Known about the structure:
This protein has a single domain (about 15-125), classed as CATH 3.30.1330.40. It is built from 2 helices and 5 strands. It has helices spanning about 45-60, 80-90; strands at about 15-20, 25-30, 70-75, 100-105, 115-125. A hairpin with a 5-residue loop joins strand 1 and strand 2 (about 25-30).
Amino acid sequence: MSHQVAPQKPAFSPVRVVPLPGGAKLIFCSGVTARGSVAETLGAEEQAEECFARLNRALAAEGASLHDLLKINTWLADMRDYPGFDAARRRAFADLATPPASTCVGGAQFTTTTSRIEIEGVAVWTPRS
């Protein structure tokens, strides 16, 4: 007798999209960390760079990019990591006249001891002519 195992449903969605009028999209990105990357064992600045790269890939799947972010929320394991995060954030949005709104909270406890930072974002994508 064989048993069929139903595929396990994911615990969360990495990205959720809300269609808006005119073909625009509101894009919610779950928080990302540097988990599983080389940056995971490095400092907060390198982890933040990896987080922004992962957010950008998630947004790209919907035709958007970091430039479409309206708001980011960031959690740091330790507020002493803020300067590294801030440096990476400034580079990520260096060519924008108005960077996204941003909130940062320290003292986060992550599921791995090597994670120093997690970043989530909300973006709006509009069709470009």
